[in-house]
Design goal:
Layout lengths: L9 H13 L3 H14 L6 H11 L3 H14 L4 H14 L2 H14 L4 H13 L3 H14 L4 H13 L3 H14 L4 H13 L3 H13 L5 H13 L3 H14 L4 H9 L11 H8 L6 H7 L4 H12 L7 E4 L5 H6 L7 E5 L2 H8 L4 E6 L2 H7 L4 E6 L10 H7 L3 E12 L4 H6 L1 E3 L5 E3 L1 H10 L2 E14 L2 E12 L5
Parallel strand pairs: 1-2, 1-4, 2-3, 4-5
Antiparallel strand pairs: 5-9, 6-7, 8-9
Length: about 475
């Protein structure tokens, strides 16, 4: 009697591969995918699975090659186009990713996920109107999809439609009451809108519903801190820190409220989180707060640095407002570095920067070999308590005869006089002028110009600071 032969079902094999990949087990998925390829070489979705596996193995170029070959045979395959768009974005090629996502929308006009992907990519590039249209259509097509809804709320806020953003999030909370991300986004939106009372109500409702994780307690602490209730802020932020003791951003916020001792600089993730959500509106925010720093830098360049040629390094360039203020005075080229990808997208939109790097300024300068005739640090040293590491890394990169122009927030409290700086409730550092001058001189700078200034108006109050122009101490001039 012939032995019975049982042939595996290709669909079952494909699902097993997907299951292994979801579980983070690419090594287990590999033989299953090989068996599927032998059994059904032309199986639908084989290229998607192969590219997913190669990505899980960290072989991004090979994953893209698989998709390139598949799309050469079927260029209108929306699934392949979406997959390649995701990989191109991961590799940092956002423009090519947008092209693929747009092609996916054309190939499958009713595919909500393709529209959402295109919308998110456009939003990252700062192309807000197009992102708004795509994400609105995605939410209309699949109103239960929480990820689409979160993206639409974000782009609505960035479009200035704050009430629409709040409504989108509130509907999300109603549809999915157990999802914390809707609640967190709604609380953050209320805080950004200057409505800490509403933020507190939302956070307290989440806590009462048994959803009081570290993120919710952190937001509750920030909400009461914004209302001037320091003791309550320390309580809730302390409780949040117990739940997430390794969260450096949370620790920084707790330190700003006085719950724990402060570190000597703000964590990179904290700084990024401050600017990513509202990067597209940064110029409008600067106008609303009467930010004088770009104009003060212009005056400093006119007085102390006009006529210098060569690359200008903009430390923590943000949305590029200082480069805009100086663009007619300096031939450049401008080189910028910032932690926030979305702020860099806003800076890129001015067309002024020859180079932009997503990097911590100290890491960037540590790897940099060039010397710059002009280095700018506008509203960036507020994220550093100790200025020694910054001065130590900037000084060797300042060309002979060059100028380092910077702004600082200042204070004259006893704590600042003793330590050199204090961490304020907004998470920024203010410095003692004497300590700043001493640190600069100790690291090889000479003081060319130091002048007290009002930097901006915040919550109705003037923010005191200074504008300084430094040169190398070993300059002959």
């Amino acid at each position: 009697m012939d032995s019975e032969v049982i042939v595996p079902d290709p669909d079952d094999l494909a699902e097993a591969v997907r299951s292994m990949l979801r579980a983070g087990r690419p090594a287990a998925a590999r033989p299953l995918l090989s068996a599927l390829a032998r059994l059904k070489p032309n199986a639908d979705g084989l290229a998607l699975l192969e590219s997913s596996l190669k990505e899980a193995e960290g072989r991004i170029p090979e994953a893209l090659s698989v998709l390139d070959a598949a799309l050469a045979a079927g260029p209108a395959d929306a699934a392949l186009l979406k997959r390649r768009a995701g990989l191109l974005h991961r590799r940092g090629d956002c423009r090519a990713a947008i092209d693929d996502a747009a092609a996916a929308v054309i190939a499958a006009p009713h595919d909500a996920s393709a529209k959402a992907l295109l919308g998110m990519l456009l939003m990252e590039r700062g192309e807000v109107p197009g992102a708004h249209a795509c994400l609105a259509e995605a939410v209309a097509a699949e109103p239960e999809n929480g990820d689409f809804r979160l993206g639409f709320a974000e782009v609505a806020e960035r479009s200035g439609e704050v009430l629409l953003a709040a409504s989108v999030l509130e509907e999300g909370m109603e549809r999915s009451p157990g999802r914390l991300d809707f609640r967190e986004a709604a609380i953050r939106l209320a805080l950004r809108r200057g409505d800490p009372e509403k933020a507190e109500r939302l956070a307290e409702a989440a806590r009462q519903a048994g959803l009081g994780n570290a993120a919710i307690l952190r937001l509750l602490g920030q909400s009461v801190a914004a209302q001037g209730r320091a003791a309550d802020a320390r309580r809730w932020l302390g409780e949040a820190l117990k739940l997430a003791p390794a969260d450096e951003s949370l620790r920084h916020i707790a330190a700003a409220a006085g719950a724990v001792p402060p570190a000597e600089r703000a964590p990179a993730e904290f700084v990024k989180a401050r600017f990513e959500p509202t990067a597209a509106l940064f110029a409008e925010t600067a106008i609303a707060t009467r930010n004088r720093v770009p104009g003060l830098f212009r005056a400093a360049v006119l007085a102390y640095a006009q006529g210098r040629s060569g690359p200008v390094f903009d430390l923590g360039c943000g949305a590029g407002l200082v480069a805009v203020a100086l663009s007619d005075l300096l031939p450049g080229p401008f080189v910028g570095a910032d932690l926030s990808r979305r702020m860099l997208a806003a800076a890129r939109g001015w067309g002024l920067y020859a180079e932009l790097a997503e990097s911590d300024l100290i890491d960037f300068l540590a790897a940099e070999q060039r010397c710059f005739p002009l280095i700018l640090a506008a509203d960036v040293l507020v994220w550093f308590g100790s200025l020694k590491p910054v001065f130590a890394i900037v000084q060797p990169r300042l060309a002979r005869g060059g100028r380092f122009i910077l702004s600082l927030e200042t204070t004259n409290t006893e704590e600042a006089k003793e330590r050199g700086w204090v961490l304020g409730p907004e998470g920024r550092y203010a410095h003692c002028v004497a300590a700043f001058e001493s640190a600069a001189v100790a690291e090889g700078f000479r003081l060319i110009h130091v002048a007290p200034e009002i930097l901006r108006i915040e919550k109705g109050a003037a923010v005191p600071g200074l504008i300084a122009v430094l040169g190398r101490r070993d300059d002959a001039e």
